[in-house]
């Protein structure tokens, strides 16, 4: 893959997340029953940030869980043999909660679909929202995000990479071009 | 001179050697001339070899009672296709061939079928139960050529000794499936590193050699008996069937050196396949005695060459496809091979290993005839025209689906062989002819 | 998602003849992943939704069958069970008939158990879908060996150079044979020990001995095998007390092994025969862990034969 451009820098990422945090509080009318669930891998760092932001704005720390969706995917046969199954940990009761599912990029919608199944297997939330840092289009399923950091139209040969301080040492969103095979 | 068939330009090869090309005129069931003549049918046999008809001292034709596996029609047709003019059928049928009546019925039916000739072996003991001797004299009169409890083993040495003594007194050969049932236990393949690794019950080589050792001592004992010296006159009294081990061969070789009246045979599978074929876990390779090792094959080829082994016996043992698709513990023992025995050994021994052709022919013709007390057939004027014409050069794969035998599977499926028979004559009568010759 | 590229695999599990070390390790890693699923409050994932697997047991074994069926259900596969008996005649249905009938019903994978060696191989020749060997005669029980290897690695880490002693009726044991194939592939040294009449003449990659002290000396782990009581009837063993006197694993004899060397047993156990009474329940015993790991390993095997990348 070859690097094409930086779509968001550190400041822009921070602003996008701040805006999402505000919108979440607004939509949920406060922090009652609110919780965040991050989807492996970068969704977890982003969810963590949102929890911190909500605490800063509202003075209340809401619970957070993490979700692995590997064995929920509908394209397992294409992934090859070695599924990377990671921890799913939701250390609170989901029943009656308003859950914000957090992922880095919304693309085909298949990850979000799998995450919904995985989440519903864990309990019965009142409401599920979807928050993503980047929506790059090309949906294959009728899924939309409730909170979007940035809408970035891309072509299918491009790859959107979200980097986080926690996982990659910097906050950024980059655009890469897939090599011709 | 006027005959019925003239086989022109055939290379002659019999148990005495190779004799160059000749135009063989056949009529009245005999070879009339080796220098041509007039005949109603003239065949050009250029490039083909004419030999005496093969004689199989050991085949399971399954009639009566197990016709679902094979019957006289299919079995004797398969034999003729394989170049055999004569077949000894084993008596482990249902009912067991232990009465003159059954022997006669089999012989009559085989004569009507008119393919290879049938020489029934009858049971040594009634019902092959190892207890009461069968009626050797009456059986011989009906046409039985040998007594054997093959299919089972003779666990009681006393009964075997008495059976040998009694059969010999009526000029009948006794043959044995030499395996010690105790040592064999439930073995379904050769005991060795392959069976250990596969976790299959093993049948040790020593089950065979221990039994041969005992049986040779039984022969030593029996020939001390009254009148035996005069009766045996150089003939074999005890024939050890389907020899499979190096150690068994050593014992027989020693026994022969000691002058014991014994003989033995080896099967095509024991000369070409080993226990490693069982790695495929395919019951098609399940046979008794089991496929042994490379070392055993080397010894057996040597024994066939030096005459310690008198003849090739197919131990053709057909079963249904369904039976051979049971698991390795339950599938029955046996390999069908009447139709491939000659091309297989011609290819694997003569062509690939340089085994002398006349000796292999001898082991298919004179050898078995001598063991059973039949006169040899040699390619001379006046000889009985029970002959096989075979093709030494054309290579063709083994195709079980085309077998005349009811058992249409083969461990040699796909092997490229040469030496396929194209014409088999019994007393001048065509019992098999391949399509181009028809 | 960035899954690491993995080598292609045999699409069946008959024994380990056509497996390489990297493939086995990759499978054990998948089992580790499945362990994660089994640790969740909801131990079920939709990975095998739409697949139907058949457990076809010609020899009864409740434990193995339940372990496989649970593994399949936890992955959301549909499971059908067939129990049959075979006879030595072909009067009834043959293996082939039975399996072909199931094939017509659209089975996606077969889990096969038989009392005779080789049936999974035969089935593999007849069927177009994956066959998993759940034990065939004395020959192989690959998922048992995988769960043993998994359990051993959990406890001992890398098995490279580790000495594993297998004690008991080696001759008639598919568990011993599969472990003798698998553990050396993972770098372990296997010593198999038992009464002379219950040892095969040889096993590739395995040291055979009748001397228990020698077998246990400095062993990093000890695996005792189940003793079938019918061995006594066949002249292979004089009596149970005789076996116990020579080959029972006791506290005292375990001192020959490395300190804290763990103890395994494939089950079901004859209490006070293979192991001295309290040992099975001692902290050294991994017997319960083996059962738990069995499910994860079988989930990994099912995942791999059904959705893993095609060879
Ligand atoms: Zn026999």
Automatic annotation (TrEMBL), chain A:
Domain of life, source organism: Bacteria
UniProt domain Phosphoribosyltransferase: residue ranges: 8-163
Name this protein carries in UniProt: Bifunctional protein PyrR
Enzymatic reactions: UMP + diphosphate = 5-phospho-alpha-D-ribose 1-diphosphate + uracil
Encoding gene per record: pyrR
Family in the record: Belongs to the purine/pyrimidine phosphoribosyltransferase family. PyrR subfamily.
Disordered: region residues: 160-181
CDD domains named among the record's database cross-references: PRTases_typeI (cd06223)
BP GO terms, sorted: regulation of DNA-templated transcription
Entry function: Also displays a weak uracil phosphoribosyltransferase activity which is not physiologically significant.
Record bears the keyword Transcription regulation: yes
Statement: the UniProt record of this protein carries the keyword 4Fe-4S: no
Segments of skewed composition (Acidic residues): 167-181
Signal sequence extent: none
Pfam families associated with the record: Pribosyltran
EC number(s) reported in the record: 2.4.2.9
Motif PRPP-binding boundaries: 99-111
NCBIfam families: PRK05205.1-1 (NF003545), PRK05205.1-3 (NF003547), PRK05205.1-4 (NF003548), PRK05205.1-5 (NF003549)
Keywords: Glycosyltransferase, Repressor, Transcription, Transcription regulation, Transferase
MF (Gene Ontology): uracil phosphoribosyltransferase activity
Automatic annotation (TrEMBL), chain B:
Enzyme Commission no: 3.5.2.3
Note on cofactor: Binds 2 Zn(2+) ions per subunit.
Binding site for Zn(2+) 2: 150, 177, 242
Originating species: Meiothermus hypogaeus NBRC 106114
Cofactor section: Zn(2+)
UniProt pathway annotation: Pyrimidine metabolism; UMP biosynthesis via de novo pathway; (S)-dihydroorotate from bicarbonate: step 3/3
Positions of the catalytic residues: 315
Alphabetical keyword list: Hydrolase, Metal-binding, Pyrimidine biosynthesis, Zinc
Protein name, UniProt field: Dihydroorotase
Residues covered by the Dihydroorotase catalytic domain: 47-216
Keyword Metal-binding applies: yes
InterPro entries in UniProt: DHOase, DHOase/Allantoinase_Hydrolase, DHOase_cat, Dihydroorotase_CS, Metal-dep_hydrolase_composite, Metal_Hydrolase
Any one Gene Ontology BP term: purine nucleobase catabolic process
Catalytic reactions of this protein: (S)-dihydroorotate + H2O = N-carbamoyl-L-aspartate + H(+)
Role of this protein: Catalyzes the reversible cyclization of carbamoyl aspartate to dihydroorotate.
Annotated Gene Ontology cellular component terms: cytoplasm
NCBIfam families given in the database record: PRK09357.2-2, pyrC_multi
Superkingdom of origin: Bacteria
Similarity-based family: Belongs to the metallo-dependent hydrolases superfamily. DHOase family. Class I DHOase subfamily.
Gene: pyrC
Residues that, per the record, bind Zn(2+) 1: 58, 60, 150, 315
Pfam families: DHOase
Positions with a binding annotation for substrate: 60-62, 92, 319, 333-334
Gene Ontology MF term list: allantoinase activity; dihydroorotase activity; zinc ion binding
UniProtKB/TrEMBL annotation, chain C:
Top-level EC class: transferase
Pfam family, one: OTCace_N
Pathway assignment: Pyrimidine metabolism; UMP biosynthesis via de novo pathway; (S)-dihydroorotate from bicarbonate: step 2/3
Every Aspartate/ornithine carbamoyltransferase carbamoyl-P binding domain range: 11-154
Annotated residues for binding of L-aspartate: 91, 174, 226
Keywords of the record: Pyrimidine biosynthesis, Transferase
Annotated residues for binding of carbamoyl phosphate: 63-64, 113, 141, 144, 267-268
Highest taxon, organism lineage: Bacteria
GO cellular component, one term: cytosol
EC number: 2.1.3.2
Record-annotated Aspartate/ornithine carbamoyltransferase Asp/Orn-binding domain positions: 160-304
Any GO molecular function: aspartate carbamoyltransferase activity
Reactions it catalyzes: carbamoyl phosphate + L-aspartate = N-carbamoyl-L-aspartate + phosphate + H(+)
A GO BP annotation: amino acid metabolic process
Quaternary state and interactors: Heterododecamer (2C3:3R2) of six catalytic PyrB chains organized as two trimers (C3), and six regulatory PyrI chains organized as three dimers (R2).
Family: Belongs to the aspartate/ornithine carbamoyltransferase superfamily. ATCase family.
Task of the protein: Catalyzes the condensation of carbamoyl phosphate and aspartate to form carbamoyl aspartate and inorganic phosphate, the committed step in the de novo pyrimidine nucleotide biosynthesis pathway.
Protein name: Aspartate carbamoyltransferase
Lineage, opening ranks: Bacteria, Thermotogati, Deinococcota, Deinococci, Thermales
């Amino acid at each position: 893959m070859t690097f094409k451009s930086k779509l968001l820098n550190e400041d822009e990422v921070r602003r996008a997340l701040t805006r999402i945090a505000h919108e979440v509080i607004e939509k949920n009318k406060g922090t009652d029953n609110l919780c965040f669930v991050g989807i492996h891998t970068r969704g977890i760092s982003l969810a963590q940030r949102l929890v911190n932001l909500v605490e800063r704005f509202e003075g209340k720390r809401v619970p957070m869980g993490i979700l692995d969706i590997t064995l929920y995917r509908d394209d397992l046969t294409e992934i090859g043999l070695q599924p990377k199954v990671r921890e799913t940990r939701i250390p609170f009761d989901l029943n009656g909660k308003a859950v914000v599912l957090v992922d880095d990029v919304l693309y085909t919608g298949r990850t979000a679909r799998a995450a919904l199944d995985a989440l519903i297997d864990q309990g019965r939330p009142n409401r599920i929202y979807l928050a993503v840092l980047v929506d790059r289009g090309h949906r294959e399923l009728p899924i939309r995000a409730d909170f979007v950091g940035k809408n970035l139209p891309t072509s299918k040969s491009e790859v959107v990479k979200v980097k986080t301080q926690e996982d990659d040492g910097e906050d950024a969103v980059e655009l890469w071009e897939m090599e011709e095979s | 001179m006027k005959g019925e068939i003239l086989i022109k330009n055939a290379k002659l090869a019999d148990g005495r050697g190779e004799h160059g090309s000749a135009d063989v005129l056949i009529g009245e069931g005999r070879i009339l001339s080796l220098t041509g003549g007039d005949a109603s049918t003239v065949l050009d046999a250029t490039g083909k070899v004419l030999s005496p008809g093969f004689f199989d001292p050991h085949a399971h034709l399954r009639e009566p009672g197990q016709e679902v596996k094979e019957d006289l029609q299919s079995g004797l047709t398969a034999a003729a296709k394989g170049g055999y003019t004569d077949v000894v059928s084993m008596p482990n049928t249902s009912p067991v061939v232990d009465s003159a009546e059954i022997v006669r019925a089999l012989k009559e039916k085989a004569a009507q079928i008119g393919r290879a000739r049938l020489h029934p072996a009858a049971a040594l003991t009634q019902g092959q139960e190892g207890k009461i001797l069968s009626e050797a004299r009456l059986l011989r009169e009906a046409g039985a050529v040998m007594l054997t409890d093959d299919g089972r083993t003779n666990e009681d040495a006393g009964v075997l000794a008495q059976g040998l003594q009694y059969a010999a007194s009526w000029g009948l050969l006794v043959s044995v499936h030499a395996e010690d049932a105790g040592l064999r236990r439930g073995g379904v393949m050769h005991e060795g590193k392959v069976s250990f690794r596969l976790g299959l019950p093993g049948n040790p080589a020593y089950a065979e050699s221990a039994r041969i050792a005992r049986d040779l001592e039984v022969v030593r004992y029996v020939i001390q008996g009254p009148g035996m010296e005069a009766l045996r006159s150089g003939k074999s009294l005890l024939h050890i069937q389907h020899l499979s081990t190096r150690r068994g061969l050593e014992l027989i070789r020693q026994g022969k050196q000691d002058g014991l009246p014994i003989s033995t045979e080896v099967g095509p599978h024991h000369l070409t396949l080993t226990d490693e074929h069982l790695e495929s876990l395919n019951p098609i390779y399940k046979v008794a005695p089991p496929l042994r090792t490379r070392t055993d094959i080397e010894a057996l080829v040597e024994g066939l060459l030096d005459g310690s082994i008198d003849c090739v016996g197919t131990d053709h043992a057909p079963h249904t496809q369904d039976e051979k698709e049971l698991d390795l513990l339950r599938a029955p023992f046996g390999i069908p091979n009447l139709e491939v025995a000659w091309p297989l050994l011609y290819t694997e021994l003569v062509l690939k290993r340089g085994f002398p052709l006349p000796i292999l022919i001898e082991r298919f013709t004179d050898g078995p005839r001598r063991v059973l007390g039949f006169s040899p057939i040699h390619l001379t004027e006046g000889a009985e025209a029970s002959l096989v014409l075979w093709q030494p050069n054309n290579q063709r794969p083994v195709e079980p689906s085309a077998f005349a035998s009811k058992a249409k599977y083969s461990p040699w499926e796909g092997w490229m062989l040469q030496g396929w028979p194209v014409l088999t004559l019994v007393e001048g009568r065509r019992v098999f002819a391949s399509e181009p010759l028809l | 998602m960035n899954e690491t590229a993995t080598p292609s695999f045999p699409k069946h599990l008959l024994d380990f003849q056509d497996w390489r070390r990297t493939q086995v390790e990759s499978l054990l890693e998948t089992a580790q992943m499945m362990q994660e699923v089994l640790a969740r409050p909801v131990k079920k994932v939709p990975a095998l939704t739409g697949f139907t697997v058949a457990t076809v047991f010609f020899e009864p074994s409740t434990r193995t069958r339940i372990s496989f069926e649970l593994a399949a259900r936890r992955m959301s596969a549909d499971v059908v069970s067939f129990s049959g008996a075979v006879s030595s005649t072909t009067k009834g249905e043959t293996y082939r008939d039975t399996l072909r009938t199931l094939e017509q019903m659209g089975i996606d994978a077969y889990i096969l158990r038989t009392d005779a060696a080789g049936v999974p191989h035969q089935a593999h020749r007849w069927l177009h879908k994956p066959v998993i060997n759940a034990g065939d005669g004395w020959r192989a029980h690959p998922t048992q060996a995988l769960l043993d290897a998994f359990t051993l690695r959990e406890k001992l880490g890398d098995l490279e150079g580790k000495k594993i002693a297998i004690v008991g009726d080696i001759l008639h044991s598919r568990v011993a044979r599969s472990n003798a194939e698998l553990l050396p592939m993972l770098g372990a040294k296997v010593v198999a020990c038992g009464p002379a009449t219950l040892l095969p003449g040889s096993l590739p990659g395995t040291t055979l001995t009748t001397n228990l002290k020698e077998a246990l000396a400095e062993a990093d782990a000890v695996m005792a095998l189940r003793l079938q009581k019918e061995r006594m009837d066949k002249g292979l063993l004089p009596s149970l007390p005789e076996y116990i006197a020579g080959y029972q694993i006791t506290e005292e004899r375990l001192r020959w092994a490395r300190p804290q060397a763990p103890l395994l047993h494939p089950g079901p156990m004859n209490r006070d025969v293979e192991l001295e009474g309290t040992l099975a329940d001692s902290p050294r015993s991994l017997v319960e862990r083996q059962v738990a790991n069995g499910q994860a390993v079988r989930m990994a095997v099912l995942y791999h034969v059904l959705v893993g990348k095609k060879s």
